[in-house]
Amino acid sequence: MTDAHTLIDTEVKSNDVVLFMKGTPQFPQCGFSGQVVQILNHVGVPYKGVNVLEDAAIRDGIKAYSNWPTIPQLYVKGEFVGGCDITREMFQAGELQQLLAEKGLVAKSAA
User: Fold this and answer.
1) pLDDT tens-place string over residues 62-78
2) Least crowded by CB within 10 Å, which of 57, 78, 109, 111?
3) Can you name the residues that pair with 19 across neighbouring β-strands?
């Protein structure tokens, strides 16, 4: 589990926005992952997708890393934002766009 934890920690800390998801941004393998991909694409923020289906240690490890039981999981600037429901609610309220703008990841006009 240590190797998976190290890999997860490296991904979270070395990417401004990272989405641990089922599938890839080009081909999500579950509806929840697909919804978060659509939101991130709509907002226009660059992000890295990590396919948890490719590695069981990552799939289990991300849940322990965040202490969050479900996938997808969104991280911004090293901080856990949430899963699909939280990301969707934040987007609908304009909070996700505001967070991304505050972190310097999207222009304020796009937020």
Assistant:
1) 999 999 999 999 999 99
2) 109
3) 49, 74
